[in-house]
Amino acid sequence: MSKLFDKLKEADRLRAGAQRDRIEAERSAGQAAQAKLGEEKRGLDMARERQAAEVELRRIANARAEAEAKAARVVAERQRAEAQAAAEAKAREEAEKKAAALAEGRRQKEEEAAQHARERAESEIQAAAAMRERAAAEELARRAARERLRGAWRRSAATSSARISSSSKRGAMPRSGPDSSPTSAGASKPMPRSSRVRAPMPRSRRASPPRKGSPPSATP
């Protein structure tokens, strides 16, 4: 009987050990399954993180590509603006050179016009002085002609009066009576005005027409 009990106890112990082993094995298997689930979960989390990181990297790459394209456009626009500014500066420089050349030409023309005006003014002054001198000479000539005419008229008047007096003296006779009055009266008559000798007036030189731009002649 004791052996039977011992066998039963031994069987119970073996059965309890096997049950414990099975429980331990199931517990190990559960822990292994949980660990596997945790690893799978961590793997999924890592995959999602990697996917999110790849998305972020793609976004960053796209943003960098867009920034590079924008920078390239900005550089191209700046180059175009610099080229346009250089062309405008060159055109402005050429325009300034042309304006300076035109100003120099206009200044030279103004100087030439001023020189011509000065020469014309000097020529007009000289012409006016020559005309004044000519007018003064003509006035002197007219005065001399008037003096000569006055002298000739005085000489002719003196000659006429001398002739009249001499003829009256020769033709006068000492008579008495009425016949002596007409003779003496006729002898005492003065000579007619037409018999006086008049000296010819000197013709003044015909004044030449004034030059263009000169003042009018002072000849009366």
Q: Keywords, please?
A:
single chain, 220 residues, mainly alpha, 2 helices, rod-shaped, disordered C terminus
Biggest beta-sheet profile: none
Q: State the helicity in percent bands.
A: over 70%
Order of helices and strands: HH
Query: Rg from C-alpha positions?
Result: 75 Å
Percent of residues in β-strands: under 5%
Low-confidence segments, given as residue ranges, are 173-220
Task: Kindly name the structural category.
Answer: mainly alpha
Characterise the protein shown here.
This protein has 220 residues and is mainly alpha-helical. The protein has a domain at 2-97 and 99-105 and 107-148. Helix content is 81%, strand content 0%. It is rod-shaped and about 240 Å long. The N and C termini lie far apart (194 Å). The model is unreliable at 173-220 (pLDDT under 50).
Short précis:
With about 220 residues, the protein is mainly α. The protein has helices at about 1-170, 180-185.
What is the fold's blueprint, element by element?
Blueprint: H1 2-171, H2 180-187
